[in-house]
Amino acid sequence: MAQKRFKNWKKPKIKHGELTKWNWMVQHPENLKLGQETDIGAFTYINAKHGVTIGNNVEIGSHCSIYSLSTIDHKKGRVILKRNCRIGSHSTIMPGVTIGTNSVVGAHSFVNSNISDNVIAVGCPVKVLRKIKQH
Amino acid sequence: MAQKRFKNWKKPKIKHGELTKWNWMVQHPENLKLGQETDIGAFTYINAKHGVTIGNNVEIGSHCSIYSLSTIDHKKGRVILKRNCRIGSHSTIMPGVTIGTNSVVGAHSFVNSNISDNVIAVGCPVKVLRKIKQH
Amino acid sequence: MAQKRFKNWKKPKIKHGELTKWNWMVQHPENLKLGQETDIGAFTYINAKHGVTIGNNVEIGSHCSIYSLSTIDHKKGRVILKRNCRIGSHSTIMPGVTIGTNSVVGAHSFVNSNISDNVIAVGCPVKVLRKIKQH
Questions:
Q1: Transmembrane segments in this chain: where (chains A, B, C) (predicted)?
Q2: Which one of B12, B54, B111, C58 is least enclosed by Cβ atoms within 10 Å?
Q3: Under an 8 A CB cutoff, do C92 and A86 touch?
Q4: Which of C67, C72, C90 sits opposite A86 (nearest CB)?
């Protein structure tokens, strides 16, 4: 179960292309669905043009990039970060990728494939390391 | 051939050490030659002290660092990103490096050697994967 | 010996959660001990909640993350960067880690263990490559 980290979580104010109070930024925030008690690190960039869904209690580290559109390789598609998953710092999530519930993506990962629920995955490109033990 | 991405590309306003409208930054912009219809991602940092040349239609992802000066290892030298090359997110380009025309550097690469034209390269340190098929 | 890089180094103004003049940021700066003639790159993020000590002449590249608290894996502990060590760009330093005097951490490293004095280390996770030759 997710730890209780927030006493008074409020949905952050997000404007297209501008740094939030925490110095992360979103393009096309009208296509971002942001869950409750989510936490996004400094210098993270989200391109929500083709849709980004971030479930409740998701944590994203600093310096991540979440791309629903990657102009460099002409890929696009909704990114879904399911409830309570965690994305380590300096990771890139490519268009169309879904990260499963409770799963953890290690820092410095390049995620170009779906990650199932309840696993730990890491690497460039990302590979599943093991299942998370259920409590 | 490069896709037509811009209807009304304008040269961005760049001031030494300040974030641009797109939240990337340049030091010593007087030594940056920036081509037409270039695209630079959020949180990318360019140190142009010893010269950085970015050709037409070049794309640079988010969270890249382009160093013509690396104080950490006392290296310096002009960086040249040739026409239509693309640099994936979270990549570092070291002093003196040239990236060839149309070439693609994959995300999360550390580029400390020249990359020839028309290839795909990736890794830490970067290695050429293959030639790009000509259309 | 560290090169003389600064003529007039001054301690930077740091406010919790705000970008400095050089576009890096610190959370909980009251728990940051910052040495003289240190140099920190753009888009670097320091979470000093549980203490970060940065010795004299330390250099930190762009896009680094220095965590005394990592909420994603529930780790915490003081980070110590000893005198004259250097941290390459895009590196992550995890809670409780000490980097030794004069040591160099290569770019794109994930540092989750202590690094002794006078070595070069690199990788995800970081590994020591070799000793630095003494002059």
A1: none
A2: B12
A3: no
A4: C72
B40 residue type, one letter = I
Q: What is the mean pLDDT of chain C?
A: 95
Q: Which residues of A21-50 are buried (b: 16+ CB within 10 A; e: fewer)?
A: ebbbbbbbbebbebbeebbbbbbbbbbbbb
Q: Is the pLDDT of residue C118 over 80?
A: yes
C84 to each of A76, C20, C64, C109, how far by Cα in Å? 44, 22, 17, 18
What is the residue-wise DSSP string for chain C?
A: ------SS--PPP--TTSB-TTS-EEESGGGEEE-TT-EE-TT-EEE-TT-EEE-TT-EE-TT-EEESEETTTTEE--EEE-TT-EE-TT-EE-TT-EE-TT-EEPTT-EE-S-B-TTEEEETTTTEEEEEPPP-
Which residue, C52, C100, C73, C35, is CA-closest to A3?
C73
Number of cross-chain residue pairs from B and C with Cβ atoms under 8 Å apart: 46
User: How confident is residue B2, by pLDDT bands cut at 50, 70 and 90?
Assistant: very low
CA C59 to chain centre: 7
Q: What is the set of domains in chain B, with CATH numbers? A: 25-131 (2.160.10.10)
Chain A residues near any Cβ of chain B (below 8 Å): 17, 19, 25, 43, 45, 63, 65, 67, 71-74, 90, 92, 108, 110, 124
Burial of residue A8, with CB atoms counted within 10 A of its CB: 0-12 exposed, 13-18 middle, 19 or more buried: exposed
Predicted structure pTM score: 0.95
The beta-carbon neighbor of C90 closest among B71, B73, B90 is B90
Q: What is the pLDDT of residues A24-43, one digit of tens each?
A: 999 999 999 999 999 999 99
- Residue C59 CA to residue C53 CA, distance in Å, equals 13
- In this prediction, residue B4 carries a pLDDT of 62
C contact set with A (CB within 8 A): 17, 19, 25, 43, 45, 63, 65, 67, 71-74, 90, 92, 108, 110, 124
Between A3, A5, A90, which is nearest C92 by CB?
A: A90
Phi-psi bin for C57: left (phi > 0), alpha (psi -120 to 50), beta? left
